[in-house]
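re: ur question from the group chat, yeah i did fold both. here u go
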Amino acid sequence: MSAKTIVAASLLAAGTLTTAAPAQAAVETPQSVCGNGFRVVKDGVRAIKDRQGAELGKVFLLYNRRNGYNCAVTFRTLFDVDHAKVLMGATLTVQTTTPPLTSSKTTSGVYSRHTKPVKLFARGLCVKYSGTIQSPASRWEGKGGRDKWGNCGR
């Protein structure tokens, strides 16, 4: 046995040699998904509930003051067993000043934790946002969001 092996073995036996702990997985937040500079706005969190009123997740509305963009993203809180993937969506609609007077963008797909972010320029403009989450068995869907114009930047 080499001298290094003997020293390491004795330190380990004495409890003074430790192995590096595995890095903790970064916790994703709406801010980290939307990117630098985005912050959740007032009235920017809405529950996504099924027909029976059970909360499946939340849809978030964020704004970036530097570039004037809004961002919507859906996070789920239920059905997160073994990171099973479910159908989820997020929609952002901006009230524009030129015809057709609205601009809308949606993302939809099968995700384990959250949707991709949806971003639209909205400086000084009103927005609506919504999210959907389908049950794993696809028997029903939860919906939530704000269907009235708000966060108009005035």
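okk and heres the other one u asked abt
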Amino acid sequence: MILPIIAYGDPVLRKVGVDIDKQYPNLDQLIENMKETMFNAQGVGLAAPQIGLAIRLFIVDASPFGEDDDLDDDERAFLGGFKKIFINPKILKEEGEEWAFSEGCLSIPDIREDVFRSEKITIEYLDENFEKHTDVLDGLAARVVQHEYDHIEGILFTDKISSLKKRLIKKKLENISKGIVKADYRMKFPSLKRR
């Protein structure tokens, strides 16, 4: 089932997610719904807070980058198959030089800004079968994971841009929270909640 994506301004996007266990209700169905929702919105990642759940769960599917001619063959091949479920993840280490890349977010449509992130991370997480993994990721894979990880920490990419850029997009952000934005997918806006 395709779920509405929570828009900028909703308090759930600012909550730090809580760990979940195998008994989390309908977890398999939730993961399938998140995959459908992400695919429908043409995203490369989706975190549970973006569908209204303050839990430590996110999914990534970087396969669209697998067709990017600007990347080298190895990175294209890796990203083409980079699809994972991250449950209760913890970034253990960030290393390397920070580099900028234009990021967007399904919860913040029509805004893209350069964000600096570490080039390499080590992350520990559980997969959908609750098996533990520790991965070392770099490049765009690390970036996508760091972006989604921020969501479960209550952080948005707009928190990582300069104060000048924040002032320049302030009105756009206010409009998003009021539902004054066009997106090619269903969204849920904080100011339009029924009272």
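fwiw on the second one: The first helix runs from residue 27 to 40. Helices lie at 27-40, 73-80, 139-152, 163-178. idk if thats what u expected
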